[in-house]
Amino acid sequence: xxxxxxSGGGLVQAGGSLxxxxxxxxxxxxxxxxxxxxxxxxAPGKERELVTSMSSGGRSSYxxxxxxxxxxxxxxxxxxxxxxxxxxxxxxxxVYYCNVNVWTPPTGSVDYWGQGTVVTVSS
Length: 123
Hints:
Layout: E1 2-7, E2 10-13, E3 18-26, E4 33-42, E5 49-54, E6 60-62, E7 70-75, E8 80-85, E9 94-104, E10 108-113, E11 117-122
């Protein structure tokens, strides 16, 4: 069973920084292959939106609203994806979810979601 565990959310003042982590594990010890890894967020009263994603080859893309402020990275050995968020704004306040496409035998490729972590940016 594949699990995604997020950490790193919290309360920060505008202009501050936070780093989110999302660790992928497999309880039965089966081989994992992590494909696209990404971060989504959902603000109160709004739909969930894609913030950033990174391919297995390291190619990344960002929503216009976070370009130049957020950076996604991944550690292949630790099966972990990170989101470094700098110059945070009140409008970045949301629940942040990691999403990872994971290949395991014999299931194949499946999208998994983290439990969500709350980021609150005060003005």
